[in-house]
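In response to reviewer comment 3 from the previous cycle, which asked for concrete evidence that the modeling workflow produces usable outputs, we include below a single protein chain processed end to end. The sequence was submitted unchanged, and the resulting structure tokens are shown without manual editing.
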Amino acid sequence: MVKRVTIRDVATASGTSIKTVSRVLNKERYVGADTRERVERAVADLNFRPSFAARSLAGHRSFQVALVCDNPSPAYVYAMQQGIRDRCEVDGVRVLTQPYDRGSPRLLADLDALIATSGPDGIILTPPLSDNDEVLALLAARAIPFVRVSPGTRAGLAPATFIDNVTAAKELTAHLIERGHRRIAHIAGPRDYATSAQRRAGYEAALLAAGIAPETELVVEGRYDFASGAEATEVLLARPAPPTAIFAGSDEMAAGALMVAHRRGLRIPTDIAIAGFGDDALASYVWPPLTTVRQPVRDLAWQAADLLLNRATPDELREVAHALIVRAST
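The workflow returned the following structure tokens.
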């Protein structure tokens, strides 16, 4: 039977004390660079894997962070999980992922139970929960550190990561205008997502900058999913003067728009141009491939975890760069 390597073995191999090894493992300060290097080398050589339970008892921490999300896009959730895991792995921290339904009457009770039973050292909130007043109040009452991804309200309440949704949407709409379109429709996301309002604001700003008056009948609300994109496109194409281009607030909604256009026998982009937002893998799999805005979700997640693990101050905001990706759909 293989003997399990213990913290005492690491201390012996590195010529330090158990307390010093513990400080290095817990990323504490006041450990010399040479000493830290010796301990880390011994950890690697011995393939030492510290016990979460033991570390918790010793340092009054759980060495766990929780991702609390409610998003209809599996691609978004997966990228968010991967980015947080990439960063937490560096510090030997475990990630708890808990999907929630923002419309459930048990939302707050379930979140409170997660905190009480798992005791995470911090929480990462994604839209729309990052702007949910009741959730924010619960976390404040529990005095648990948290980071918000893409918040739209109460700046400075907690550290946050974001992209400039307004500028990104403005750039994409300007691209459609440069292609000669004047009747550009927008399939917006749900109203309780701050990103929905931000992207609509960028869309309208680009129209106004080109001397085009925004038309209410050319904006239809969706749910950031395929089905609502298809439903919204049917509504838009039934207008007396249908649009020549559609900017959907997510790639999944844009894919739904593509499906309807294909079913109606419309040529893309000759008869109608369609663009999305996000640059999920889906964007390059559909035909024709989607013009979209690249939202680097994995980077947003990594930065959010980094803010949490480094105990950033509430006013620390990190912007992650977006990019306009032009493909055959426009």
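Residues 52-58 have pLDDT under 50 and may be disordered. We consider this sufficient to address the reviewer's concern, and the full set will be provided in the supplementary archive.
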